[in-house]
Amino acid sequence: MQKLSVFVKNNYFLLIFLILPFIVFWRNFAPISDKVYFGNDSLISFYTLRSIMNQFVEGHLPLWDPHTFYGIPLLTRPDSLVFYPPLGFLVIFSIIFKFGMERFFVLMEAITVFHMSFAGICTYFFLRRLGLSKFSSFIGGIIYMFNGNIIAFTNTTGLLISMTWLPLIFLTYDSLVRKPSLNKALIFGLVFAVPITTFAWQNAITYHIYFLIFYTLFLIRYKEIDIEKSFLYIVFSFSIAVIIAGVVVLPGLEVPKVSDRAALDYGLSAYGGDVKFRELPDLIMPYMSAHSYAEGGVLELYSGTTPVIYVGILTLLLIVPAFFRKNKLVVFFFFISILFLLFSLGGETPIFDIFYIVLFPLMKPFRNINKIAYISFFCLSIVAAFGLENITTYYDEVKLQLVKYNKILLQLFVLMTSGLFLLVILGDQILWKFIPGSQSVHIFSFLNVVILFYILFSLSILCIGIIKPENQNYLKVLIFVVIFSDLFMFAKNYPINNYGKNPDKLFANSDVIKFITAGKNFTDRSDVRQIPNNYASALNNINHIDGYLVYRSSVLNKMLALMPLEPRNNLVDTVSNVKYIVSGSETVGEDYKLAFTETVTSQNRSKYYLSAPVPSGLDEAPEGVKIKVFENKNLIPYIHFVKKVAVKTDEAAAQILSNQKMDPLNEALISPDSAKSATDLGTGTVSFSFLQPYELQIKVHATKPSFIATSQPYYAEWKATLNGNPYVVTRTNISFMGFFVPQGDSTIIVKYYPKTFYTGLMITIVSLLGVIFLFILSIKFPGFEKRFFQRSR
Question: Is the Cα dihedral 38, 44, 48, 53 positive or negative?
Fold first, then answer.
């Protein structure tokens, strides 16, 4: 018991870091609420990991998911997240202990929340390395772990991971460049490799490296490192990181060949998802575009923007005291915070254009520039910690400057008090004249926001104003309460944290889904786009044709582009083997029959979402709405003989399909690089079975040379053999596979063989063993390192 007491006393800051995120999001873990911490992209990660686990349990190697988006890579996808250690271990433990969906989800949610604690703890240790006190380091950690950029992107698991790993990356890099050694290079390489395995490469590689380059230049400028000595270690450690993450890096490099989402151009990278100038006030008061705390509604004064740049009022007020004592680190981190905040504005500032022109090749991966703001807030958390250190530890030295600062803050306080009084008296008459647009929001919603800011500002200047050596303990408690309460309100009320739903409450578990999946036959597909739950329903073994995903074939996108919601193109649906269309409409076309109807009631409405003007873009369907399932009356066999094939470019084929000028049962369109046109082809019998989700067996008896068309999605990694010999897969009907077959009996085996993945996996395993070997070698033979690097130089 005494040992436990000593441990708590020595590490209570770290324990608080572990507890705080669960205090903020306790409702998500309570049985009284259906709310969950993450939604959208995180649900993709959840179902991907869950599918990998399910296939392992069923005895399959989870290379391929046959249910999702016509069929997609699974374990082999660079964005599967299974090679990120915490989530990979979650899958392993779930297999061993047979976790159900609900327990798996709760554990993944807990891992997601814990990343905030991880970010705070690593920031704390970095600040301690810089010589700051425990309390100042603690507050700096809280500021970073709850900053607006991290909160805004918690719905994207890979981004959250790379953002929260930044402090540890920076800590290990700082140690490496200042006193380089083989062990430090190996440690940094391992640390830097971990977020790379999430495939969030914008942050995990590009943004991080830019930050580290600026820091290296700063250290060189002040001659704090020997760059000649450090250079080889730095290059070596980055190389180690990329090689260790080879199982993700090699498949990731293949994505531009597969997916349209990797084709970034300047317009998208410069202007897609930027922070807007009109959002900058959110640095001080994000409640303007986040939730109104009194009435629970949403007050949107800035149309089309999202508050992702909040760091707390007291954080900003602590910036000035950071400069009360000369410190070049404070100047550096403040400069970088401003630079990266301007950089996050993207196309709205010349800063981005200058960087783009100078560094064109390196700028191509930049997309959604607001994601880079977390680096600015990491720097601000460091600056604020220095400010707090100056006015607590060095009170006597900065007392005169602090008095002047307090006078200015008190003057601001008086102005705010006057402004609040005028707002209460005359606000209803004058305020809305200066707000753009016709907002039908009651004045007191805005007034609540102003009062909340007024209270937080008052408490913040109180923290700075009462600092004296004799009342430090009271001050620390007050500072903690103000910082945490301020950031807590933003994190708890940010819209993404208010509409996530537990998976067992989603559309994926409704009676409609039970109907369209009753046959458990993943060759029969469904289109549920009119019920916008693609994040969940498309990824729960529902044979869904569309949804948001990085690793989806660009040739499949060409087919999806030909598939309107209403009226339906029956030829495209038939070629694509779309059996069911789920809709709220009265009809979707004459070639479809109504197969099932469910009425939305108070009991099931949480499973049905419709497009709505709410922060999430979705809202529960009103009671009484009928959700209908229409069945395609012209469905043809998944694999069948055709009498005629015509060579057509994708553009020509798209035109034919769009105009419905083809008989899908007897004709097929093949790509120009596949074969020649042919008519009067043979017929016969064909049967097929999936030996594994990634292995298709087709048995054919043909009366003469023939062609069989399929609705199996085309990916280059699918390899075919005909009677045991390698055979060519013919891209058919733009997005699917087809095969020319000889007369007689034939057996075609089509198997998904991701060579790049296997190569990357082998590189990862060998490199990890190599790192372990080098660790042991450097410990047992210290002279080895010196001889090796001297010889290299």
Answer: positive
Q: What is the model's pLDDT at position 40?
A: 65
In the prediction, which pLDDT does 118 show?
A: 96
Q: 351 by DSSP, 3-state: which?
A: helix
Torsion of CA 128, 157, 351, 285, to 10 degrees: -70
Give pLDDT, residue 247.
95
Determine how many CB atoms are found less than 10 A away from the CB of residue 550.
17
Cis ω for the linkage preceding 567 (within 30 of 0): yes
Bridge partners (DSSP) listed for residue 696: 690, 750
Query: Pairing mode, if any, of strands 639-642 and 706-713?
Result: antiparallel
pLDDT at site 52: 92
Do residues 707 and 738 touch, judged by C-beta distance below 8 A?
yes
Rounded to 10 degrees, the C-alpha dihedral 207/212/215/219 comes to -160
Q: How far is CA 489 from the centre of its chain?
A: 23
| 10-residue mean pLDDT series, the chain (793 residues) | 68 88 77 58 82 91 88 90 95 91 83 92 96 94 92 84 96 94 93 93 86 93 84 92 95 83 54 64 60 37 59 92 94 94 77 69 64 92 95 88 91 86 64 51 60 85 76 80 84 55 64 81 84 56 74 84 89 94 87 92 76 59 87 94 93 94 93 79 92 94 94 92 93 94 95 94 95 85 63 51
Reduce the DSSP state of residue 594 to 3 states and report it. Answer: strand
What whole-number distance in Å separates Cα of residue 159 and Cα of residue 156? 6
pLDDT at 301 (0 to 100): 44
DSSP 376-445: HHHHHHHHHHHHHHHHHTTHHHHHHHHHHHHHHHHHHHHHHHHHHHHHHHHHHHHGGGGSSS-----HHH
pLDDT for 618: 61
Please give the Cα distance from 270 to 348 (Å, whole number): 9
What integer pLDDT is reported at residue 35 of this predicted model?
56
Q: Rounded distance, CA 793 to CA 789, Å? A: 6
Question: Among residues 461, 430, 387, 429, which one has the least CA distance to residue 143?
Answer: 387
Q: What angle do CA 729, 692, 684 make, to 5 degrees?
A: 50
Matching residue, tokens 């709310």 = 35
CB 164 within 8 A of CB 115: yes
Query: Chain-centre distance of CA 399, in angstroms?
Result: 45
CA pair distance 114, 49, nearest whole angstrom: 18
Closest CA to 634 of 577, 688, 559: 577
Most distant CA atoms of the chain, gap in Å: 99
What pLDDT does residue 499 have?
44
Cα 92 off chain centre by: 22
The DSSP bridge pattern shows strands 736-741 and 706-713 to be: antiparallel
Asked if 194 and 166 touch (Cβ cutoff 8 Å), the reply is no
Residue type, 709: A
What gap in Å lies between CA 731 and CA 709, rounded to an integer? 9
What totals of helices (H) and strands (E) does the chain contain, helices first?
A: 29, 19
Q: At 641, is the secondary structure helix, strand, or coil? A: strand
- Closest by CA to 729, choosing from 671, 772, 779, is 671
Strand 626-632 and strand 639-642: the pairing is unpaired
Dihedral sign for Cα 657, 663, 666, 672, please. Answer: negative
Q: CB-based contacts of 193: which residues, under 8 Å, 6+ apart?
A: 240, 241, 242, 244, 245
Residue 230 in tokens: 């450090």
Reading across the β-sheet that carries 592-599, which strands appear in turn?
525-527, 578-583, 626-632, 592-599
What local confidence, expressed as pLDDT, does residue 13 receive?
87
Q: What is the pLDDT of residue 90?
A: 95
The whole-number pLDDT of residue 462 equals 87
568/575 Cα distance (integer angstroms) = 13
pLDDT of res. 446: 63
Residue type for position 146: F
